Structures are given as structure tokens and as C-alpha cells.
Amino acid sequence: MLSGARRSAPDIVKPNLPTPSPLIIKWHAFRRATTCWTNSNPRFLPALCLPPVDSAAIDSAGCIPPDILEGLKQLDLFGQQIPVEYGGLGLTVTEFARLSEAVASDPSIFLLLAAHQLLGLQGLLIAGTEEQKYRYLPRLANGDWVAALCLSESESGSDLTSIKTQATLSEDGDTWVINGSKNWVTNGSIANLYIVFAKTKMEDHKGQIHDRTTAFLVEREFEGVSCGQPDDKLGIRGTSTCEVFFKKTPVPVENVLGEVNKGFNLGLDILNGSRYGMGGLLTEVLKKFIGWATEHVVNRNQLGKTLKDYELIQEKLAKVTSTTYAVESMTYLLAAMLDTYEDPDCTVEAAMLKVFGTETCWNGINDCLQLLGGKGYLKNYPYERLLRDMSITMLVDGANDALRFFIAFKGLQHIGPLLSERVKGMRNPLNNPGLVFKTMWKRRNQAKDHPSLNLGLCNNLHPALEVPSKLLEYCVLRLQYASEMVLTRHGSEMLIASVFCHDAYERVKAHIINLENAPFGSNHVNYRTIASKVFKNKGYFLAHPLARNF
């Protein structure tokens, strides 16, 4: 399925995106992970049978207690996305996202499971042979084994083209020998199976030797595998992160993951496919902070009235609530797309969720800390610990600045072939006067920043959303115009294109603000209305996307 984000850049908006349906839990899959089902649960998910989690103790000790790990095993939470035939729960992406919200009560526990499933064993699900899957997945599903991804290195980060770890085939052709080390390996010291990316040699048809990348399944018990001291991290201190060393480590040829010299694309697939999993963590943490901030401003008196009566307080809390709703909606829309379509291409959408969601969460936490006042600066409250925990989210799974370029590049890469003939004609106006005149006539309103809002998006939405639909149409049309201008003026000069797209983004954002505050009224009234509902409900009050979609 073609990415909706890429398609919307030059094309007319089409109402073919799925919406998340109310979640119908497969009881047979959840029977060990949940208590008795009850429809009275407002969060539409039974409480997990985990032992009491002392997140402060986990943060202080720098590890997750054995009884918590055993509880995770008994609930089969290590095998959420492993197919049933290999001993896992076989959850859909939507079910996984919903369960992640419950697990995200402690970010260290969330990251332990996410690194195991979204990074560690994902390569095995994507490219593993049936023999490899039956050999490893059952043990990974029941938690007896933990998986870890060994990709990043100190000098190259996650750039697969620059890694230094080498794998050499033995003379008898039965064994690969790996030498090198990997940094920032999450679950490194507790993992039993490492997915290791190493450089291998390839000879082309001319006899020339080239470096390529190959992925290997390396067991902890293989000779030459060792771990360094755990990294002393700022946050998520309960997870194990360390350097892993491979010194003349022999790996059987049957443990090659995928094809020899074809590991580069597998590595990209793993990284691109893991970003959707962060949405549950982000929304859960934001909802926690909204609840804490609400409790504080409702009960705190200042200058003769409670903080909740001040308009600036109402506006700040309403903004955090509205952006949390946006992150939650993006999470479950993306989950529905991944569940609905066969072989979906949602890498751009996942990158968008990661960038927008992590920065929204960081800014939302900061706003809530301001509302909490001096309490937010004390270590005997959970606020500073969660602030430290969430600081990593903008760096893992691709730094946000790099993902911004990725989003812009993928969009331009898609529309380039669609507009190639028009762009060629516009670059040669003397030879194509008819095309130039026709195009300029169509663009006359766009050039004046007054595009014709004729996409008809409002026809597919609730009547109350007519104004927001027009704002979205404006953004889509301006993005289309900006994309065409970039390709016409700069062609394949992607560095210039990325700068242009950034400027276009700032311009569109400014115009959206003007539109919101002009003919459609001010948002101050809306902020007060939202804030009053937050106060009334003592926290985040919106229905979960899986509770209803109307």
C-alpha cells in the first residue's frame, strides 16, 4: 500500500484511510495476560496481573527486579507480536499499541519489551528461515531468551555503511568469524540472542572486491562474545545498555539472517518498522502528567482563587490535552493502517509519529512541570524521573533532525516521477509556452497564498469538522505547490530542497495560525472550554480511540 503521507503531497486527498475500530480483545490470546474481562473498565483494557512496580526503586537500582521479569514471562508479554504458531500471542499492531500503554507505566519495562520485540527479534520475523524461526522464536516468546539488536558503533552510530565490525568466511565455508564491537546495545547484558550486523566482502563480475553488510544470529554462548560494564545513563536506568564485544566469534553459516551481503536493507527495515511502537509510551506519560497537573491546579490557591481559574493556566493545560489527543489519534490511525493493508508502506507515517510525538511529549512534560511549580523540581515525586526517562525518545530509532530530512526526501522522491514531464517543460519555457501559461494560470491563486480549497475533504467528515478540514486542505495544497517549486527550481539538489521545505513549513504554520484567529474566531474560548472539561474529569477526559471512533 502506498504511503498516505507521500500520496497526499501532490494528489487529491482521498477518503481511503482506515480508522481504528473499537478493540475486540481476543480472549484466548489475553487469558494469561489479563484479569477477568469487564466492560465497565473505562480504558477498555483489563488490569495486568503484574506484581507491584516500584519505578523509583528500579531507577535507583539500575535494573528490573527478577519478580517483575518473571511476571512479564508469565503474562507472555515477551511474545506479543510473535505469531501463535511459534508460541507467541500473535497480537495485531492495534492490540500491541493498546497493551503498550499499560506496560508504559514504567518506561524501563516498556523499553525492555520494545527493544526485545521491535528491534531484537524483528529481523528474525522479517528474514528468518522457518528452521531459524522454530529454533529461536518459541524461547524468545516465553521470555526464556531475550533478543538484542547489535547495529550501532561508536564511530558510525546507526549508519550501516560505516560500521567496522568484520565477518570473514572460513576456508572450509562452514563458519563466519566475527570481530568487532557494538555500542548502546539495549538488553545487551541480559540477551541470549544478538542480531549482529557486520561487514562482509563481495566480489563483483569484474573481480573487484566491495564491502557489503550481512546480518547474523549470534548466541550469547558462542565463543568470543562478551559484554562491557552497563552504561550509566541519564534515564531509563532499569534497562540494560552496554557494549558487546565479538572476538574471533565463530558463527555457523546457517545463522546468516537473510542473504549474505543483503543486510543493509534488512537493517533499514528493522529501524523503519520499529518507530510505531513508541506511541503508547508517549500518550501514557502525557496522560499521567495531565492528571498530576490537573490535581495540583484544582487544589492550589493563589491570590484568593484556585490556579484553575486563571486563563493562562487553562490555556496551557488545554494545549497539552489537545496535543496529547493528536498523538494518541496518530498512534491508532497508523496502527489501523498497518493492520488493514497487506504489506503496508508506512515508513513516512511512522517517522512523522516519532518526530511529532516525542517533541509533543517533551514540550507537554515541560508545560506540566511549570504548572506543578516547585513540586516538579523535587526528586521525591515521579516527575523528574519521567523527565529523564523521556529525554531519550528524541534520539532512539533515528534522531528527529535526521527523520525530518527522511520525511522530506521520501515525499520529494515520490512526487518527482509524477511531475517529471511538467518540471522539464517548466524549465524550458521557450519550448513549452502552452504548458507554462497553463501552469501559471492554475497557480495564480497559489502564488498569492490563496489556494482554491476544492479537495472536498469536508464531505467525508462530520459537519462540525468543516473548518479544520479547510485548514488541512490549505496545508496539503501549499505543500503541493512548494514541492513543485522545489523540483522546478532545484531538481535533485536535495540539500536545497530540504531547506526550502523547512521554510515552507514555517510559512504554512504561520498562515494556519492566522486562519485560526481570523474568520473562525479565537482559540482562547476553546482553550477555556477544554480546560473546564479537564478540571471536571480530573485529568485527560477524551475517549480512547479503541473505545469508539465516532
TrEMBL record:
Reaction(s) catalysed (UniProt annotation): tetradecanoyl-CoA + oxidized [electron-transfer flavoprotein] + H(+) = (2E)-tetradecenoyl-CoA + reduced [electron-transfer flavoprotein]; eicosanoyl-CoA + oxidized [electron-transfer flavoprotein] + H(+) = (2E)-eicosenoyl-CoA + reduced [electron-transfer flavoprotein]; oxidized [electron-transfer flavoprotein] + hexadecanoyl-CoA + H(+) = (2E)-hexadecenoyl-CoA + reduced [electron-transfer flavoprotein]; octadecanoyl-CoA + oxidized [electron-transfer flavoprotein] + H(+) = (2E)-octadecenoyl-CoA + reduced [electron-transfer flavoprotein]
Presence of keyword Hydrolase: no
Xref: Pfam families: Acyl-CoA_dh_1, Acyl-CoA_dh_M, Acyl-CoA_dh_N
Annotated protein name in UniProt: Acyl-CoA dehydrogenase
Keywords: Acetylation, FAD, Flavoprotein, Membrane, Mitochondrion, Mitochondrion inner membrane, Oxidoreductase, Phosphoprotein, Transit peptide
Cofactor or coenzyme needed: FAD
One GO location term (cellular component): mitochondrial inner membrane
Source organism, top-level taxon: Eukaryota
Primary site of residence: mitochondrion
Domain annotation Acyl-CoA dehydrogenase/oxidase C-terminal: ranges: 261-408
Domain (Acyl-CoA dehydrogenase/oxidase N-terminal): residue spans on this chain: 56-144
Similarity comment: family membership: Belongs to the acyl-CoA dehydrogenase family.
Organism (species): Timema monikensis
One GO BP: fatty acid metabolic process
